[in-house]
Amino acid sequence: MRVLINGLPLFAKRLADELQKYDPQSSYIFLDTYNSKWAQLLFFIYLPFSDCVISMNGVTDNSGSLNLVLKWKKKLILQWMGTDILLAIERFKNSNIDRKYIDYATNFVDAPWMMEELKSANINTEKLHFKFVEMNTIIEKYSSISVMSYVAQNRQDFYGMDEIIQLAIVFPEIEFSLYGLEKAEKPITENIKLYGWVSPKVFQEKLMQTPIFLRLTKHDGFSLAVLEALSFGAEVITSFKSDFGHSAITFDDVPKAMLQAIKEVENRHFKPNLALVEKLQIEFKKEKILYNYVKKLKEIVSK
C-alpha cells in the first residue's frame, strides 16, 4: 500500500514518519504541497501509483492536488484539524463551500465536538485518533503551584490572552509562564513571564515541572499540547468540554476552573495526576493509535 500525505506539515510529516515505522511493508510519503513546487511535482508523479491520499486539513475550496486525486479516482481521506472547521462552517453559511472533495472523501476528526461542528455544515465524519502519547518521565512532586500555556505572538486574542491576564490578576501569588509569546499586546502583571519560542524538548521539560496547563483558545481541535500536558500528569484547563480536564467554556468559568485545578493538585500533595496518566497511556497508546489508523486505511483502500 502506498499512501501520500499532505496538508499541515507539523502533523502530516509526523504521521507519515510514524506510520512508516509501524507499517514498513507499506509506503507513507509526506509531500508539502502547500509550500513546495517540488513537492507538487512529486505528488503528480507518485499519485498514479498510489492507493490513497490523506489530507491533514479539511479542504472547502479548490485544490490542484486534490483535483488530481479525483481525476485518478484515488481514495481520499480528509483529516479535519481545527481552523479548517471554522472555515467550512463560515463557507457553508455563506453558501460558497466547495463540497466536491468532502462528498468524495472519507472524513475523519479526532474529537467529538469537531464532529458536531462539522455536522452543522452538513458534513458527516467519523472519529479516528492519530495523535498519541509517549511514555514520559513523570516528576515525583511539584515544588509549587505554577501555570503555563502557549500563546502565538500574532494570535494573542485567539489563544485566550485576556483570560490569562485576568487569571494572573486574580492569583498574583502564582507564576504564569507563556511560551510562543515574546511581547504582549496588552499590559501584563509581574507574575506573567514570557519565554518566546523554545524547542520542543525545553517545552516538554517545563510541562513536566508545571502542575497546571491552560488551553483557552477561541476554537480548538484535539490539541497535541493538551495531550502532552495530560501525559505528564498536569491539571489542564480548556475552553472546550473535555473528559480529561477542567472545562472553562465562558470567561467567568476560568477562575472557577483554576480554583478547582489548584484544589486537585493540593489534594494530591503536589503530586502529578498518575491515575490520569495511566488512563491516557491506555487510550492513547502509540501502538494502539497506529494500529487502528492503519487498519482503517486498509479498509478504505480495499473498498
Written description of the protein model:
By secondary structure, the chain is of the alpha/beta class. The strands form two sheets. A six-stranded parallel beta sheet has the order 2-1-3-4-5-6, sandwiched between helices. Strands 9-8-7-10-11-12 form a six-stranded parallel beta sheet, with helices on both faces. The chain is built from twelve helices and twelve strands. Helix content is 42%, strand content 17%. The longest helix is centred in the C-terminal third of the chain and has 17 residues, at 286-302. The model has no long low-confidence stretch (mean pLDDT 94). It folds into two domains: 2-132 and 285-302, Rossmann fold, CATH 3.40.50; 146-281, Rossmann fold. The chain has helices at 9-22, 37-46, 64-72, 83-93, 100-104, 112-119, 161-170, 200-209, 224-231, 253-267, 274-283, 286-302, and strands spanning 2-7, 27-30, 52-56, 75-79, 106-109, 126-127, 146-150, 175-179, 192-196, 212-215, 235-238, 246-247.
Quick structural gist:
With 303 residues, the chain is an alpha/beta fold. The protein has helices at residues 9-22, 37-46, 64-72, 83-93, 100-104, 112-119, 161-170, 200-209, 224-231, 253-267, 274-283, 286-302; strands at residues 2-7, 27-30, 52-56, 75-79, 106-109, 126-127, 146-150, 175-179, 192-196, 212-215, 235-238, 246-247. The mean pLDDT is 94.
